[in-house]
Amino acid sequence: MTDALDQAKRALRAELRERRQQLSDAQRAAAAEGVRAQLDALVTARGARSVSCFLSSPTEPGTRPFIEAAIARGIRVLLPITREDGLLDWTVASPGGEEVVGALGVPEAVGEVLGPIAVNDVDLMIIPAAAIDRSGMRLGWGRGFYDKTLGSMDRRPPVYAVIYDSELVDSLPRDVHDQPVTGVVTPTRTLDLPADT
Protein backbone atom coordinates (compact mmCIF):
# COMPACT_ATOMS: atom_id res chain seq x y z
CA MET A 1 0.00 0.00 0.00
CA THR A 2 1.38 3.41 -0.88
CA ASP A 3 1.83 6.05 1.79
CA ALA A 4 -0.74 8.32 0.11
CA LEU A 5 -3.33 5.52 -0.02
CA ASP A 6 -2.64 4.57 3.59
CA GLN A 7 -3.00 8.20 4.71
CA ALA A 8 -6.26 8.63 2.77
CA LYS A 9 -7.71 5.51 4.41
CA ARG A 10 -6.58 6.59 7.88
CA ALA A 11 -8.11 10.03 7.48
CA LEU A 12 -11.40 8.59 6.25
CA ARG A 13 -11.55 6.06 9.10
CA ALA A 14 -10.90 8.84 11.65
CA GLU A 15 -13.73 10.92 10.19
CA LEU A 16 -16.13 7.96 10.21
CA ARG A 17 -15.22 7.06 13.82
CA GLU A 18 -15.88 10.65 14.88
CA ARG A 19 -19.29 10.66 13.17
CA ARG A 20 -20.26 7.39 14.84
CA GLN A 21 -19.23 8.64 18.27
CA GLN A 22 -21.52 11.66 17.92
CA LEU A 23 -24.69 9.55 17.61
CA SER A 24 -27.06 9.62 20.58
CA ASP A 25 -28.20 6.52 22.45
CA ALA A 26 -31.66 6.95 20.92
CA GLN A 27 -30.16 7.08 17.40
CA ARG A 28 -28.13 3.94 18.11
CA ALA A 29 -31.18 2.08 19.45
CA ALA A 30 -33.25 3.06 16.40
CA ALA A 31 -30.41 1.99 14.09
CA ALA A 32 -30.15 -1.41 15.82
CA GLU A 33 -33.89 -2.00 15.39
CA GLY A 34 -33.69 -0.97 11.73
CA VAL A 35 -30.71 -3.26 11.13
CA ARG A 36 -32.57 -6.15 12.80
CA ALA A 37 -35.57 -5.67 10.51
CA GLN A 38 -33.39 -5.37 7.38
CA LEU A 39 -31.29 -8.44 8.27
CA ASP A 40 -34.37 -10.49 9.17
CA ALA A 41 -35.81 -9.70 5.73
CA LEU A 42 -32.48 -10.46 4.00
CA VAL A 43 -32.14 -13.84 5.73
CA THR A 44 -35.71 -14.70 4.70
CA ALA A 45 -35.19 -13.55 1.10
CA ARG A 46 -31.95 -15.54 0.81
CA GLY A 47 -33.41 -18.60 2.55
CA ALA A 48 -30.37 -18.65 4.82
CA ARG A 49 -30.28 -21.32 7.54
CA SER A 50 -26.75 -20.52 8.65
CA VAL A 51 -25.09 -17.09 8.77
CA SER A 52 -21.97 -15.44 10.09
CA CYS A 53 -22.38 -12.16 11.90
CA PHE A 54 -20.42 -10.04 14.40
CA LEU A 55 -21.00 -8.59 17.84
CA SER A 56 -21.27 -4.86 17.23
CA SER A 57 -19.19 -2.44 19.28
CA PRO A 58 -21.04 0.42 21.00
CA THR A 59 -20.58 2.79 18.04
CA GLU A 60 -21.41 0.31 15.25
CA PRO A 61 -24.92 -0.28 13.93
CA GLY A 62 -26.24 -2.77 16.48
CA THR A 63 -26.35 -6.45 15.52
CA ARG A 64 -27.36 -8.03 18.83
CA PRO A 65 -31.16 -7.73 18.28
CA PHE A 66 -30.73 -9.53 14.94
CA ILE A 67 -28.49 -12.24 16.43
CA GLU A 68 -30.98 -12.99 19.22
CA ALA A 69 -33.91 -13.03 16.76
CA ALA A 70 -32.02 -15.31 14.34
CA ILE A 71 -31.17 -17.80 17.10
CA ALA A 72 -34.84 -17.79 18.18
CA ARG A 73 -35.80 -18.61 14.57
CA GLY A 74 -33.48 -21.63 14.55
CA ILE A 75 -30.80 -20.05 12.36
CA ARG A 76 -27.23 -21.08 13.12
CA VAL A 77 -25.16 -17.93 13.72
CA LEU A 78 -21.35 -18.01 13.69
CA LEU A 79 -19.48 -15.20 15.46
CA PRO A 80 -15.81 -14.33 14.85
CA ILE A 81 -12.91 -14.66 17.26
CA THR A 82 -9.71 -12.84 16.24
CA ARG A 83 -6.40 -14.67 16.02
CA GLU A 84 -2.86 -13.35 16.24
CA ASP A 85 -2.12 -14.51 12.69
CA GLY A 86 -4.77 -12.20 11.24
CA LEU A 87 -7.35 -14.89 10.54
CA LEU A 88 -10.71 -15.39 12.20
CA ASP A 89 -11.84 -18.39 14.21
CA TRP A 90 -15.59 -18.87 14.70
CA THR A 91 -17.96 -19.97 17.44
CA VAL A 92 -21.69 -20.68 17.42
CA ALA A 93 -23.81 -17.94 19.01
CA SER A 94 -26.08 -18.94 21.86
CA PRO A 95 -29.01 -17.09 23.48
CA GLY A 96 -27.61 -14.48 25.87
CA GLY A 97 -24.11 -15.76 25.07
CA GLU A 98 -21.10 -14.69 27.08
CA GLU A 99 -18.86 -11.96 25.66
CA VAL A 100 -15.36 -10.71 26.33
CA VAL A 101 -13.40 -7.75 25.02
CA GLY A 102 -11.05 -9.21 22.44
CA ALA A 103 -7.41 -8.35 21.86
CA LEU A 104 -8.40 -5.53 19.51
CA GLY A 105 -10.80 -3.95 21.97
CA VAL A 106 -13.95 -5.22 20.24
CA PRO A 107 -16.57 -7.58 21.69
CA GLU A 108 -16.08 -11.27 20.97
CA ALA A 109 -18.22 -14.28 21.83
CA VAL A 110 -17.02 -16.99 24.18
CA GLY A 111 -17.58 -20.56 23.04
CA GLU A 112 -16.14 -23.63 21.39
CA VAL A 113 -13.61 -22.50 18.78
CA LEU A 114 -14.44 -23.96 15.37
CA GLY A 115 -11.47 -22.71 13.34
CA PRO A 116 -11.22 -20.50 10.24
CA ILE A 117 -12.84 -22.89 7.76
CA ALA A 118 -16.13 -23.12 9.69
CA VAL A 119 -17.35 -20.01 7.86
CA ASN A 120 -17.13 -21.85 4.53
CA ASP A 121 -20.46 -23.55 5.29
CA VAL A 122 -22.64 -20.47 5.94
CA ASP A 123 -25.35 -19.35 3.51
CA LEU A 124 -24.76 -15.65 4.16
CA MET A 125 -21.98 -13.52 5.66
CA ILE A 126 -22.79 -10.33 7.58
CA ILE A 127 -19.66 -8.28 8.25
CA PRO A 128 -18.67 -4.93 9.72
CA ALA A 129 -17.31 -2.03 7.69
CA ALA A 130 -16.34 1.60 8.06
CA ALA A 131 -17.82 2.43 4.64
CA ILE A 132 -18.79 0.83 1.32
CA ASP A 133 -18.72 2.41 -2.10
CA ARG A 134 -21.27 1.97 -4.86
CA SER A 135 -19.06 -0.52 -6.72
CA GLY A 136 -19.13 -2.81 -3.67
CA MET A 137 -15.65 -2.06 -2.35
CA ARG A 138 -15.34 -2.15 1.43
CA LEU A 139 -13.28 0.02 3.73
CA GLY A 140 -12.62 -1.86 6.95
CA TRP A 141 -10.93 -0.62 10.09
CA GLY A 142 -7.41 -1.40 8.88
CA ARG A 143 -6.66 -4.74 10.47
CA GLY A 144 -7.41 -6.93 7.44
CA PHE A 145 -9.25 -9.77 9.20
CA TYR A 146 -12.22 -9.81 6.84
CA ASP A 147 -10.17 -9.13 3.70
CA LYS A 148 -8.02 -12.16 4.54
CA THR A 149 -11.05 -14.31 5.33
CA LEU A 150 -12.93 -13.34 2.16
CA GLY A 151 -9.81 -13.60 0.01
CA SER A 152 -9.13 -17.14 1.23
CA MET A 153 -12.60 -18.59 0.57
CA ASP A 154 -13.03 -20.97 -2.38
CA ARG A 155 -16.81 -20.61 -2.47
CA ARG A 156 -17.86 -17.28 -1.06
CA PRO A 157 -21.52 -16.91 -0.04
CA PRO A 158 -23.25 -13.54 -0.44
CA VAL A 159 -21.50 -10.98 1.79
CA TYR A 160 -23.35 -7.98 3.21
CA ALA A 161 -21.70 -5.20 5.20
CA VAL A 162 -23.62 -3.44 7.97
CA ILE A 163 -23.15 0.34 7.93
CA TYR A 164 -25.04 3.53 8.68
CA ASP A 165 -26.86 5.14 5.75
CA SER A 166 -24.31 7.95 5.40
CA GLU A 167 -21.46 5.43 5.02
CA LEU A 168 -22.50 4.31 1.53
CA VAL A 169 -20.31 6.57 -0.60
CA ASP A 170 -19.55 7.06 -4.29
CA SER A 171 -15.95 5.82 -4.16
CA LEU A 172 -13.29 4.72 -1.69
CA PRO A 173 -9.50 4.48 -1.82
CA ARG A 174 -8.64 0.85 -2.53
CA ASP A 175 -5.67 -1.48 -2.44
CA VAL A 176 -5.15 -4.82 -4.19
CA HIS A 177 -6.05 -6.87 -1.09
CA ASP A 178 -9.37 -5.06 -0.47
CA GLN A 179 -12.34 -7.40 -0.95
CA PRO A 180 -15.73 -6.42 -2.40
CA VAL A 181 -19.09 -7.18 -0.84
CA THR A 182 -22.38 -8.29 -2.39
CA GLY A 183 -24.36 -5.53 -0.74
CA VAL A 184 -24.99 -3.31 2.25
CA VAL A 185 -27.48 -3.35 5.07
CA THR A 186 -28.27 -0.03 6.74
CA PRO A 187 -30.91 0.84 9.31
CA THR A 188 -33.27 1.85 6.49
CA ARG A 189 -32.48 -0.37 3.50
CA THR A 190 -30.71 -3.35 1.99
CA LEU A 191 -28.95 -2.73 -1.29
CA ASP A 192 -27.27 -5.17 -3.68
CA LEU A 193 -24.12 -3.75 -5.26
CA PRO A 194 -22.33 -4.61 -8.52
CA ALA A 195 -19.05 -5.88 -7.05
CA ASP A 196 -16.10 -4.52 -9.03
CA THR A 197 -13.72 -7.46 -9.00
From TrEMBL:
Does Magnesium count among this protein's keywords? yes
Give the reactions, separated by semicolons, that this protein catalyses: (6S)-5-formyl-5,6,7,8-tetrahydrofolate + ATP = (6R)-5,10-methenyltetrahydrofolate + ADP + phosphate
Q: Which residues bind substrate?
A: 55, 60
Which cofactors, if any, are listed as required?
A: Mg(2+)
What is one process in the GO biological process aspect for this record? tetrahydrofolate interconversion
- Coiled-coil residue spans: 5-33
UniProt keyword list: ATP-binding, Coiled coil, Magnesium, Metal-binding, Nucleotide-binding
UniProt binding sites for ATP: 9-13, 138-146
Known EC number(s)?
6.3.3.2
One annotated GO molecular function? metal ion binding
NCBIfam families documented for this protein: MTHFS_bact (TIGR02727)
Q: Give the record's family classification.
A: Belongs to the 5-formyltetrahydrofolate cyclo-ligase family.
Q: What's the name of the protein? A: 5-formyltetrahydrofolate cyclo-ligase
Q: Which organism is it from?
A: Microbacterium album
Organism lineage: Bacteria, Bacillati, Actinomycetota, Actinomycetes, Micrococcales
